Amino acid sequence: MGTPDFAVPALKALHKNGENVVLVVTRPDRPKGRGRKLALSPVKEAAINFGYTVVQPPSVGSTEFSNIIAKHEPDFIVVVAFGHILRKTILDIPRIATINIHASLLPKYRGPAPIQWAVINGENKTGVTTMRMDEGMDTGDILLSSELEIASDDTSETLHDRLADLGADLLIQTLDAFETGNILPVPQDHTQATYAPLLKKNDGRINWERPAKDIEAFIRGMTPWPGAFTFHEGKRLKIFRAKAILTDTSGTPGTIIKGFPDELWIATGKGVLSIMEIQEESGKRLLIKDFLRGYNLSPGTNFN
Do 178 and 31 lie in a common domain? Predict the structure, then answer.
């Protein structure tokens, strides 16, 4: 069970490992693009390429859906970024276990946006966890986990791809451990749990009162979606890449200050942020030196 790109490496790993995938469950096709044509989910596209049977239930809580799963008598259900809370009636169907791959080192960053929040919060490491699913939000017993270092230039996009591959490897290790009897589910320490809430489009607005280092991490965490943005004279500017400069400034947070030629420096609550890639509304993503050739940003004016 899965839908987005993050779930595809796990499906590919099952296929490559020769597992008997009897059914793939993904969300219904959805309209996409200007033409609003129905688009297949990444998992559905991969499943079709492998020749697997695909089911797209309008509701995962229906008796009809439970019956579809039950008739296949699965040993395992594997859930990766499916986007639904499954009822106990589904979780209890497999002969052995319902397994979830989660993109954090549980119990930290439970919830739908663990990759983004790990970057936003300036974590040095994250990872993936396989767990035995229960009815809670990422609260099941931990099976295996694997750590991954977060690089100083990682965005949510770059980290996403590495974690997806790491999760696929960990899934195969988990299934192998079940087969050899070397698996020991460990209850989570719920007192150490943190939550990674779903991000909305407006969450990407930059707060210039924050330290430059925090804003740099915020921009990386918000890339590619929902995107970090600010406003200049009523125009929305999307910032893709920036670098914190730890220097004293007397400028009001959000104020453009004088920097070197072809650079854009913004005062923050602590230090200066140098903007490296930016995009104007309806414009192209540009290096700052190219952007400044066609857009006048005078020192002393404000981002807000």
Answer: yes
Adjacency order of strands within the sheet including 97-102: 76-80, 97-102, 125-132, 141-149
What is the C-alpha R_g of the chain? Answer: 22
Nearest to 103 by CA among 36, 162, 28: 162
CA distance linking residue 249 with residue 208, whole number of Å: 13
**CA pair distance 168, 126, nearest whole angstrom:** 16
- Taking CA atoms, 121 is separated from 80, 107, 124, 129, 162, in Å, by 24, 16, 9, 19, 19
CATH number for the domain spanning 247: value is 3.10.25.10
Look up the pTM and report it.
0.95
How many structural domains are present in the chain?
2
What gap in Å lies between CA 37 and CA 87, rounded to an integer? Answer: 32
- Residue-wise pLDDT for 62-110, tens only, equals 999 999 999 999 999 999 999 888 999 999 999 999 999 999 999 999 9
